[in-house]
Amino acid sequence: MTKTDTNNHRRSRIVVVVRHGERLDYDQRAAGKNWVEVNRNKRPWDPPLTENGLDQAHQLGTALVGRILKDMNLNPKIAAVYSSPFLRCRQTAASIIQGASSLLPSENSDTNDGNSVVDYDQKTIANQLKVKVEIGLAESINENWYRSWCINGTDGTWGYKRKEIPDLDPDKVSMDPRALQPVAKLLDWKKRPTDAADGIVNEMMDNNYQSRTSLGGSYSLAGGNRPNLESFRTQRDRMAKTMNLLSDGHSLDGNDDETIVLCSHGGPVTHLYESLTGNNWTEHGEGRYCCFSMYQKEEEGSTSDDNDGSKWTPLVVNRVLWDSNTNSTITTGSNR
């Protein structure tokens, strides 16, 4: 869309919603190992990506800037990249930025060698891109999530032992005591011990950025009390509110026709589609690793921050680079 010279022009916002790449705990589970137990004394709720997962995200960043956005006649500039506080999403976001930046001409290059596919000052923009953590993009803070890491013996499986242990009662079930803390402590990514393998993602984080969104509740399993957990409706609503708020941000170069990227999780990404389109989640399908959907919002120029009534048009739904189908659906396994 071409920006007009009027003050009341129509602006176009493109939001790319991404599920994180391949996670290490599920990969090790498939190999008969248990990442959660091995990392019990660290952060069992916060597994990293595999090397393949990092590569998936890097490829997506390259494809978005180098091919997908341009082929759709959209501005290939990525103005901002936001992420859930979970490590796997932050790594995905950082790798997307790296992938997008890999198309930059080298600093010593005086001419376009044919590999640079953008027509704006991409180096300036890319150098300003950092991963901004938004709490509103977090995983579903429900009982299934807690079961995946806080019960002894679990291996990351979503809703672990639902039949054997139908009710999670902290007074009766042996579990990680950290599940009784306010979840805000568990999501504090800045308190995560630094690991040598996290060097790249740590360098890409915008440590000064303050999240503009929240979960909307103080969740925990609260020993001795009834657990305070996030409902499906609350999770779906906070994702939609997060998207509307972040899509109204300011671009880096003053151009309103921009693209932003949101990195989140399987459930939140899938149910966001329901909120934005009014369709059942099955029209979206379960998302594979690094699946992405693209939504467009157009509105008359306005200074209002109230976008709760925004109308979104899905341009791409649940696609992965390694599948020719626009709508990619899997029928087995968890997609968190």
Automatic annotation (TrEMBL):
Pfam families: His_Phos_1. InterPro entries: His_Pase_superF_clade-1 (IPR013078), His_PPase_superfam (IPR029033), Phosphatase_SH3-domain (IPR051710). Gene3D superfamilies: Phosphoglycerate mutase-like. Coiled coil: none annotated. This is PGAM-domain-containing protein. It comes from Fragilariopsis cylindrus CCMP1102.
